[in-house]
Input
Amino acid sequence: MTEGSHEGRPVAIVGAGIAGLTAALSFARKGIATDILEQSSVLSETGAGVQLSPNATRILSKLGLGHQLEKVWSEPSAICLVSGTSLRTLASVPSGAFARDRWGSPYGVLHRADLQMILTAAVEAEPLCRLHLGARIDDPSRGSVATLTGREPGLVVGADGVWSKIRTHVQGAGKPRFSGNVAWRLTLGEADAPAVFDTTKVTAFLGGGSHLVAYPLPKIRSFNVIAITGGQDPHAAPDRTMPLGDVRKQLIAAFAGWHPQIANMLQNAQDPTIWPLYEVNEGAWNERENIVLIGDAAHAMMPFAAQGAAMAIEDAFELASFVADGKPLAAFVDQRKTRVARVRSRGAFNRFAYHARGPIRLGRDLVLSMRRPESLAADFDWLYGYQPRD
Ligand SMILES: Cc1cc2nc3c(=O)[nH]c(=O)nc-3n(C[C@H](O)[C@H](O)[C@H](O)COP(=O)(O)OP(=O)(O)OC[C@H]3O[C@@H](n4cnc5c(N)ncnc54)[C@H](O)[C@@H]3O)c2cc1C
Output
């Protein structure tokens, strides 16, 4: 294969998650055909909700999905940080109309199934995209892909998530590492939610060593709840088969000293699932001009800045632009690594601040209380105002 060229051949995308589906639409926009190979025979999503920040919604709008998304998401009026013990509001970043105005694109929260349905329908309606379900790829060589698709790709995109098989074919690629944190995910009907949960806001409750995020999913009259604490990987693999009783016991213990509204809510939670958080922090993202990794396959990150899906969407869109312009994959990787590193350090800062204890926590609360909402919002300009290569 010549450098920086897919030689007019289709691109094979392994994985039909947020990264893979967005990549297919982004390539189609540039007139490049794709085969999307997904191991599952039915597309389904784990976890109920997802926050889409303006840097992600800007791209989804460019792909023509803005109007459909607006019908199924809600735009929170603010993102609030609240003490998990006293329930005092520590800080509030305005969102809603403010986000549209300041960052030029909305901040939306929605059910993952809705996002996936919209992306899948758009891919299925696009003549340049061919979606192959029940098509697992362990060997990304051209010949092996062609046996499933009937045509040899000019480039293979590994969009196959944190446990990527394609990554094992990239020399010098990183490995997933357990972060020392686990997430519990649950969906709570509005009627069962504590009074402090606000149907108009994303609220992050902060406590020593843990935090909990709640945001509304109005379409199903529920809240998406994610609780994150330090913990062990129960199975040393992303397996959610731990007995429900044990899951609940661990969750209750982690939030025992919290305000009763939250501790009681967790005590009564019906369907918590535990999710050990793995990261891919370093390593190569491409194998010459043959293979490139995007999304969690390249850089799975902790959800402290709620940016994993947003980075997958940015990767997908910018990759299509670099490839269409005949640029070498190294140029794409350089650009994306710089951006992802900055987002990762923002996540690491949040991890430190959200889970702070003792004097650091007091200092954090003081500093936050002195900052005005507009000044807090300015901290996000580089992240949410990002203009992707088009
Ligand atoms: C608790 C939690 C909350 C989060 N909240 C947010 C948030 O609010 N906002 C945000 O931006 N991000 C969030 N994230 C991160 C976000 O969910 C992920 O970064 C994103 O979903 C990654 O998408 P992906 O397409 O790269 O990978 P995946 O969603 O893992 O998709 C990979 C796909 O590849 C398929 N596949 C795997 N192997 C093969 C193979 N060998 N052959 C064929 N197909 C294969 C899989 O079946 C799957 O469909 C959160 C993450 C967690 C854990």
